[in-house]
Inverse folding.
């Protein structure tokens, strides 16, 4: 899983089967120091509570679909948690 | 599997239910030269601590097998603490 910042939302009324009721958010992946790292992606919100500006973590690839109520849906990124705190113990 | 170093912890109260019972650690992934090459947030099943060199499994089916789950959105799991690491005949510093 990686860290990301929620920067927007996507609304789509026509979606693939199994994606009814799933929220989609635009997220900016971050490095461990919470600096932007890579391209923005659209992620399904598996916790139903993430909103713009929040620090979250997300899972990629096939595991993203596992986070949603219907299995094997066409989703490749899913938000699996809202971060309260990141504590970096040692510099590297 | 990958070799990594635990560099931090991630705390969340709102998360998918599977993650309620597991500690999340932020790990640098060691590149071929031993320097950090990206990072991943892992579930810890071996009680690893910050600063330790660890073995990271980064594949969903194996991760679910380790945790005894049929389904679940998990992928990266710390499955071992490294005692010794030798690359190209040279011993790497393990912490």
């Amino acid at each position: 899983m990686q860290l990301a910042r929620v920067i927007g939302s996507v609304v789509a009324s026509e979606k693939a089967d199994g994606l009814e009721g799933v929220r989609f958010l635009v997220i900016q992946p971050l490095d461990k120091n919470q600096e932007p790292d890579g391209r923005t992606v659209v992620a399904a919100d598996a916790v139903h509570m993430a909103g713009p500006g929040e620090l979250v973590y997300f899972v990629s690839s096939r595991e993203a679909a596992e986070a949603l109520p219907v299995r094997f849906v066409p989703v490749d990124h899913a938000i699996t948690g809202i971060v309260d705190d990141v504590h970096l113990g040692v510099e590297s | 599997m990958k070799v990594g170093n635990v560099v931090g912890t991630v705390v969340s109260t709102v998360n998918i239910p599977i993650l309620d019972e597991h500690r999340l650690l932020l790990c640098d992934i060691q590149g071929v030269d031993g320097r950090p090459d990206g990072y991943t947030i892992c579930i810890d099943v071996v009680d690893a601590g910050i600063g330790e060199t660890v073995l990271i499994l980064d594949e969903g089916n194996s991760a679910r097998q380790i945790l005894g789950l049929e389904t679940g959105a998990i992928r990266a799991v710390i499955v071992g603490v490294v005692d010794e690491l030798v690359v190209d005949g040279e011993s790497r510093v393990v912490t």
User: Anything to note?
Assistant: The interface with chain A takes residues 5-16, 19, 24, 26, 28, 36, 39-42, 50-51, 60, 71-76 of chain B (CB under 8 Å). The CA atoms of residues 33 and 89 of chain B lie 13 Å apart. The mean pLDDT of chain B is 94. The longest strand of chain B covers residues 2-11.
